[in-house]
Amino acid sequence: MDIELLKEAIELKKRGFERANKLRRRDLKERTHERWLHGLNGLFMVREPGTSLFDDAASLQQALDEENVPFCFIGGVALQHWGEVRQTADIDLNIHCELGQEEDVLKVLLSHLAYRDEEARRDFETHRVFFGRSSHNYEVDIFIGFTPFEKRITNRAITQDYGLGIPLRICSAEDLTITKTVAGRPRDWGDLVSIIQRSGESMNWPLVFEELEPLLALYAEEQRLPRLQKMVLDEYPDGLPGVESPDSHE
């Protein structure tokens, strides 16, 4: 094939990709609740009603509420609302539990979930993390926190209709951004792109950076903060309230 013709074909494809991405970003920002539920149901469709990942999340929520355990869903469940609908295979929760009350929480969890394996028993005792399975065999990761930040996560949680008849309690967009940045896996940075595109304009960015700065310092991952700031400014070149250029600190 003629090299110039090949270059033209590649350029056309590149423009097509750019146009598709522009449309995806527009649709993400303008997504209605009805269109979101339609996409959610299509992606997580199950053969038997009542057996989806979100059904099991709702059932777990009911058990925790009955015992007044403060919690909220984080991770993939919350991402469906604050970012772009994508496949997720597990249920992640943050539970706030004062020191010394772990056994009370464990009793509630074991009344509704099974340990994922024998090692998971030790994980709860040594790491304050519960690795379990739900009634329909979905993996459940529960982080049992006692710090002021983890209490603030549960206090800032909202309820969101997932088409189940019972709204799910999910973390705020700000706290999902914070936890994704702290986790810092490649998948988390990919998720942050869609969260910024979907929810960036309405987010309280000063709160995000205020919470992140000491957390990242504890993990010795301070470089993640300017990376997040750059991602926001790449999406919103005209700027957003409370978002400074990383270069302004140099």
Output the keywords.
250 residues; Beta Polymerase, domain 2; 2 domains; five-stranded mixed sheet; 55% helix; globular
Question: Could you explain the architecture of this structure?
Answer:
- By secondary structure, the protein is of the alpha+beta class.
- The protein folds into two domains: 27-171, Beta Polymerase, domain 2 (2-Layer Sandwich); 173-242, no CATH class.
- Helices cover 55% and strands 12% of the residues.
- The strands form two sheets. The protein has a five-stranded mixed β-sheet, sandwiched between helices.
- Strand 4 (129-133) and strand 5 form a beta hairpin.
- The longest helix has 27 residues, at 3-29.
- The radius of gyration is 20 Å and the shape is globular.
Structural class: alpha+beta
Write the CATH architecture name of the largest domain: 2-Layer Sandwich
What is the string of SSEs from the N terminus onward? Answer: HHHEHEHEHEEHEEHHHH
Mean pLDDT: 88
- Total individual domains: 2
Proportion in helices: 55-70%
Q: Approximately what portion of the residues adopt beta-strand conformation?
A: 5-15%
Oligomer: single chain
Distance between the termini: 50 Å
Number of strands: 7
Largest sheet: 5 strands, mixed
CATH class of the largest domain: Alpha Beta
CATH topology of the largest domain: Beta Polymerase, domain 2
Walk across the major sheet and give the strand order: 1-2-5-4-3
- Tally of separate helices: 11
Instruction: Return residue spans where pLDDT drops below 50 for at least 5 consecutive residues.
Output: none
**Gyration radius, to the nearest Å?**
20 Å
